[in-house]
Fold:
Amino acid sequence: MIATEPLRFHLANAWYKQRLRSELADLGGQLLEVWRDAKLPLIERKRRIFERWEECEDPTSTRRTEVDRMRLEVARTARAKIEAFVRQVAPYGSPQAFTDAELDRLNAGRAGKTRFRPYDAPVLPEDVSAETELGTADAAPQTVAEPPPPDPPPSPTPIGPDPGPGFSPARER
Structure:
């Protein structure tokens, strides 16, 4: 068992990292599901979005094992994604926006030092993903340079004596 401990530790960390990535990939859909739930009043949808943000590892925690670092990295990304989502679906000043009073109330009971302030967050290139998930991104396709076609495969070198003229190694029938 001792001999395989490093391998088992590596495999467990790789599995956990993949699980965290998978959860992060699913986050946008989960946020959309909450936001589009017409049965819930706006204030409840906002509370649930905030709860998703709050569930993320607080960057002020002092634990710093390898697993903690992985979780913190994903948590930072998740929080940024949630804040970008809020700026997209409930822009500051809109009727759907979080008010200062709502933000103060939500942050009042938090144990962590970081406060939920989605409108104070910088607008990053990652914000585009919220537009894509919402289906509000520009319909015009972005032109992406296509890579050049691959070189044709080299002709196979025959093994043995030269088969002579007219021989084709890959005949089509």
